[in-house]
Amino acid sequence: MDNLILFLNSFLSYLLVMAVIVVLGGVAIFIGIKLRKNKNKQLEGENATRVG
Q1: pTM of the full predicted structure?
Q2: How many domains are contained in the chain?
Q3: Is the pLDDT of residue 27 over 80?
Q4: Is residue 47 part of a domain?
């Protein structure tokens, strides 16, 4: 029984680490997309002023 408890403890510990990594990755992707959209909007504005 002790081995099962130790196994579950280790498993849940790694599961928690994986969940943290997934959340951080999701946040990084969200920030990256937001920054890229802002940069595209800035570049569109600059091109519109040059052409017009």
Answers
A1: 0.74
A2: 1
A3: yes
A4: yes
DSSP 3-state of 25 = helix
Largest CA distance in the chain: 76
pLDDT, the chain, mean: 93
Residue 51: inside a domain, yes or no? yes
Residue 14 lies in a domain: no
* pLDDT confidence bin for 51, thresholds 50/70/90: low
Measure Cα distances from 14 to 4, 11, 27 in Å. 15, 5, 20
13 within some domain: no
| Rounded-to-integer distance, Cα 22 and Cα 4, Å | 26
- State the Cα–Cα distance between residues 5 and 22, nearest whole angstrom: 25
